[in-house]
Amino acid sequence: MKQRIIIVGGVAGGASVATRLRRLSEDNEIVMYEKGTYISFANCGLPYYVGGTILEKDALLVESVENMVKEFNIEVHNNREVVNVDPEKHIITVKNVLNGEAATDHYDRLILSTGAKPIVPKIQGLDQADNVFSVRNIPDVERIKNYIDAHIVHKAAVIGGGFIGLEMTENLADLGLEVTLVEASPQVMAPLDFEMAQFAHEQIELHGVQLILNDGVARFSDNGKTVVLSSGKEIDTDLTVMAIGVLPDSTLAQKVGVKTGIKGAIVVNEHFETNVPDIFAIGDVIEVKDFITGTPTLIPLAGPANRQGRFLADYLNGLDAKNPPVQGTAVAKVFALTVATTGKNERLLNQAGIAYQVVHLHPNSHAGYYPGAAPIELKVIYGEHGKILGAQAIGTEGVDKRIDMISAVMRLNGSVEDLQLIEVAYAPPYASAKDPINYAGYIAADQRQGLVKTIEWHEVDALIEKQAYFLDVRESFELAAGKLPGSHHIPRGELRGRMAELPKEQPIYVYCSVGLRGYNAARILALNGFEVYNLDGGLKTYEQAKYETGQMKTQPHLAAQSGSDSTTAQQAPQCTKIEVDACGLQCPGPILKVKQSMEKMNKGDILQVQASDFGFHKDIVAWANATGNQLLTNDIVGNKVVATLVKGVKASHDDAAHTLQAAPDTGGATTMVVFDGDLDKAIATFIIATGSAAMGKPVTLFFTFWGLNIIKRHANTKISKSGTDKLFSMMLPKSADHLPLSRMNMGGIGPKMIKKVMADKNVDSLAVMIERAKQLGVKMVACTMSMDLMGVAREEIIDGVEFGGVASYLGEAAKSNVNLFI
Amino acid sequence: MKYVIIGGVAGGMSAATRLRRLNEEAEIIVLERGPYVSFANCGLPYFIGGVIKERSKLLVQTAEKLYQRFRLDVRTKSEVTRIDREQKKVIIDHNGKSYEETYDVLILSTGARPMRPPIEGIDQADHLFTLRDVPDAEHIVQYLQQHKVDHAVIIGAGFIGIEMAENLAEHGLKVTIVEREHQVLPPLDPEMAIVVEAELKKHGIEVLKGKTVTGFDENGSILVLDDGMRKKTDLTLLSVGVVPESSLAEQAGLALGIRRSISVNDHLQTSDSNIYAIGDAIEVAQTVGGRPAVIPLASPANRQGRMVADILSGMKRSYKGTLGTSIVKAFDLSAAVTGLSEKLLQRFNIPYEALHTSPPDHASYYPGSAQMTLKLLFDPESGKVLGAQAVGKKGVDKTIDVLATAIHGQMTVNDLTELELAYAPPFNSAKAPVNLIGYASANLLDGNVQNVQWNEVDQLVKQGEMLIDVRTEQEYGNGTIQGAVNIPLDDLRERLSEIPKIRDLIVTCQVGLRGYLAARILAQNGYSVKNLDGGYKLYSSVFPEIVK
Ligand SMILES: Cc1cc2nc3c(=O)[nH]c(=O)nc-3n(C[C@H](O)[C@H](O)[C@H](O)COP(=O)(O)OP(=O)(O)OC[C@H]3O[C@@H](n4cnc5c(N)ncnc54)[C@H](O)[C@@H]3O)c2cc1C
Ligand SMILES: Cc1cc2nc3c(=O)[nH]c(=O)nc-3n(C[C@H](O)[C@H](O)[C@H](O)COP(=O)(O)OP(=O)(O)OC[C@H]3O[C@@H](n4cnc5c(N)ncnc54)[C@H](O)[C@@H]3O)c2cc1C
């Protein structure tokens, strides 16, 4: 039987249902009413049209009116608003929006796909502002573009940090505008949990956008040129985009007695039927069933709207089709990052009272040794029986793929077991043999089986306060980039030999940088009878969660420089520049690479390093500060961090060249630079020093950076210190009694010598050795420059040590035939 | 407990490290014949090509690090020459000295070695290489550095052959590929592989299909092909497949499976209950159809390594099978496959339906989008997905990975339509490629449309069926399938009278979508009509010489 099917709304849902209806039936009359000029346009592309990524407006028009008519034989009425419905008589009233004329039409079936409209709250001053816009359709973005063309626009404000707000922020920034993003809640992107949103916050600020959280718009003043926030803060703006969310566009439905629920969304059954006979609804305007909770919810996304359109057409043609529950899988580009989510986050699960567990991991997008690999910050949330409840992922590569796979596993009501078993297409440019989602499955399964107990980032502070025993199992060099206050340090590789140092009566909280070594260490300790917890996601997740917005200089692409003498780089034009590629390396990989490269360089040489892990941006600042190397630039270039450093530039004040010329040609002396503060290195140093001195050679030990720890007094010297100095001394061991152990080689001499000593001597012996060295006339010099940098005061250094600059070392070195760098 | 593991790379090292994490006390010995353990074999072609610059990047772990971190006793250059099952010990050769090591449990992860067919003159051939490990790669790199090499010939166009062709070509060599089958990449079906072949040719690689090398002449400087062709070569790579390295197992009398792989049960246990085996050397069940197979891939090897450790540590685990998801980069293209191919389905007599689409990887209005060719194979009754293949510039890995997930979950084509995939214009379309092919397949399943395949259409036209090309006049003018008449879709409804009702019809368009629309119109008007699956695009890529 031939039917007249009228569709209200001609974009995502409306166009889908119309075309599918036609494909299934040539007989029915299919009629589309659209209030706007355009039908079937790509709303999701609108922000990119503003930013100029999409150049042609026509590109946004998926199907033209003409095509709809010709190819699909659909009757299209654009610029027509349906203003009323008589459900009894099956008649609609239509208003021509161009001239106001009214008309009527008859339907057998009526489909509402009226979408959702931007929320525009009644804010004081809004009516007087001609520069405030929202973004829903093509005319909206044309208005924005025209405004920018016709006015002088330097500054823009975006109100609302949802997907649309962020896309608009990026696109306005791409136009070269100075953008301020205002979000009323503590984070952008509500589908993310806070610690994950912090990656987005940092990214936004790295691109020079001013990010204001926890603050909303109170009013506009100055004809919209000033946005006044609830806090009283004022923002100058030439153009403002309101993107604080959408509401179901259900005015028509409500008018004719269609039942609505949450925020006015139309209530439909699984066949898209409303309470009014022959009226159906799809898309952003309806309530859908939440995939996890089974309760009604709103999920205004294009994928579901399209699917619903198709399924409704199927149902109307007698095919078996039901509205599937919705997970809310979504993705957005946030500058260089891709941010994707599926299912529920912790916040929503807590609200729903559903118990869950989480894992955080930071795997590489593909084999680290193949160019272009970058970390994915991945979070998977699972519940009873390991069933997956949600996932969040952020990174520059391969993010959408992982969320899509997890989304598919969720469709199967799959568990973390399934994640382990998914066989992904692996070759080095695409994945790893153990794919990120396999890893997530492995970690979660181990958690479930009780192989490892974990704590989350938000539990750390309370534990620190309670003086819990935190054990840092990273390598010594990594500590320079920060560690948990009061934590103890045993590198993972030494753990088996140093378990005696650990308390048996108290739980041990292990951590590393990303969670993997921590897990391995936790296994070792657990198998040795300790009560042990691993910090899920490692220091990286914790530190990211602690990210403080508003600290970064707003200058785009350029972050803080360490030190003030940035002129030194120009002073040394003859120095070599070395380029290092640390992409695909996960923290601490890039820092290690920098350290290794620096060791081979000469003072004043420049190192340029690029990394694909954004965490490097922070780490390198801390590292450069701690090691006395100067950071010249620290930029975000595309999806990489590019930093340049000058080696040991601060020492250039010392008149090294002069000293060198003056150096006499005496042979047979030994000079050692003690750079690291590890116990074994310290012991080795003094073995060699006392050995050489005993052979009658003049010996000079030059202590720099961590090496200074060896010659510190016992901890009771209390000296008042200021800010950053305090921070460093917190990170540094207190004296020779507290030195960590490293795995040092020293061209083979070190370990052999140490072995014997280590066998029968304990920590105290180092103090004894220092005394003996002094007696043998070993000259000890503490480097003043690195003391400054490390925040070590003269009072903290043991007696009998001289103070000097690099020049004094070079002077000694020139006289020596044995020069060791330890 | 004393575990001895033979083979220290993908499977072996996964097993060893996991065993340690689960058992702090166990004694774990890893015996590796070569000089390195835990290296990244899959990166070797890219190391040779210079894409991976530092050799050290390929060496994932060293014996010392493994000792320090995992207390693993890793012994390189230690070849196991015999297994004594009676006495539960292995005989090891280290630098020409032989010694024994007993075991409680033995794990074989001996991998697979490159096949070396007995071609005439092969033993006298110089500059003939195979590629399995770091020393192999170093030999090739050294050879390239020390000799003037202009022309390389690669025998075998499988995954490794293709990767090497690309990497040698990027090195500036003139490369020829010789392949016995009538297509490159035999795991793919021919109409998919042809897209890859075109890409290889575009980058100057000569592809000789359907040809075998029958001899090496002049110390390998000349390759003799079965058609008499003589091909000069400065460097030859033999990449004609791998065979399970099972001689140890065989000597020890362990049960073997197909292609002399090691038989294991679902606990990865061999016929000797104290000996387990994993990785490329074992026989596995195919996830789809359950038939025995040898599937030499890194990800299953890693998974099996981990699982055998779990099993040995008392966890409840069983190895269910291998799907065989794999992917290869060929210049700007990616080609990926999961599940069974059409060729295999035919060989196994499994009923199937095939479908091709050409979706863009992401919204075509957002810059940089690229069309891929996607093929789905599914059960014509239940709609269960049996296999998939994709070739294209972008989104290929994602699409196949989602489909691999779907096969893992025994999904049907209807389930594909419900998958909720992350959509924003830079990443996907609101109807993702996976959704779309699900829709199209569901249409077939529901009987909304009937398809003909690229390799059936000519025959049907010969038998008198009418072929209608529904693209625009201009598209039609630029080339069509022989015998096609043109009625553009937009005019179809008006021009129905031109089409005789008595004839069976085939409609075609560019990729299959408009053809489908036309087929719906015609079917509803009482015609018997089929749509050419994949459209002109697929047909003309397979038969470029036939279309005008
Ligand atoms: C800027 C922007 C970016 C987006 N980005 C994404 C993204 O990246 N990914 C994603 O999944 N989703 C995105 N979305 C959401 C997605 O566009 C919607 O989910 C989808 O369009 C909903 O389809 P719909 O048919 O329900 O409503 P719409 O597509 O909004 O269509 C509703 C139409 O109905 C018309 N209408 C309303 N009332 C009447 C009436 N009484 N008479 C006649 N016509 C009427 C309206 O004019 C409108 O054109 C984005 C949306 C916007 C605005
Ligand atoms: C060039 C190349 C590229 C590849 N690319 C990919 C890819 O992109 N994707 C993918 O999935 N797979 C790829 N593979 C396949 C993948 O590397 C293998 O599937 C995987 O390594 C198998 O792991 P395995 O542990 O079974 O064997 P292997 O990793 O091969 O390890 C076996 C080891 O056992 C040693 N051994 C054997 N016999 C003895 C003995 N008697 N005594 C002591 N030691 C012994 C061998 O020396 C060898 O080192 C590639 C392989 C190669 C060679």
UniProtKB/TrEMBL annotation, chain A:
Its cofactor is FAD. SMART domains: RHOD (SM00450). It comes from the Bacteria. Residues 464-551 form the Rhodanese domain. Keywords: FAD, Flavoprotein, Oxidoreductase, Redox-active center. Belongs to the class-III pyridine nucleotide-disulfide oxidoreductase family. PANTHER family: NAD(P)H SULFUR OXIDOREDUCTASE (COA-DEPENDENT) (PTHR43429:SF1), PYRIDINE NUCLEOTIDE-DISULFIDE OXIDOREDUCTASE DOMAIN-CONTAINING (PTHR43429). This is FAD-dependent oxidoreductase. It comes from Sporolactobacillus kofuensis.
UniProtKB/TrEMBL annotation, chain B:
Its cofactor is FAD. PROSITE patterns: RHODANESE_3. Residues 461-548 form the Rhodanese domain. CDD domains: RHOD_Pyr_redox. Keywords: FAD, Flavoprotein, Oxidoreductase, Redox-active center. It holds the Pfam family Pyr_redox_2. InterPro entries: FAD-bd_OxRdtase (IPR050260), FAD/NAD-bd_sf (IPR036188), FAD/NAD-binding_dom (IPR023753), FAD/NAD-linked_Rdtase_dimer_sf (IPR016156), Pyr_nucl-diS_OxRdtase_dimer (IPR004099), Rhodanese-like_dom (IPR001763), Rhodanese-like_dom_sf (IPR036873). Belongs to the class-III pyridine nucleotide-disulfide oxidoreductase family. This is FAD-dependent oxidoreductase. It comes from Sporolactobacillus kofuensis.
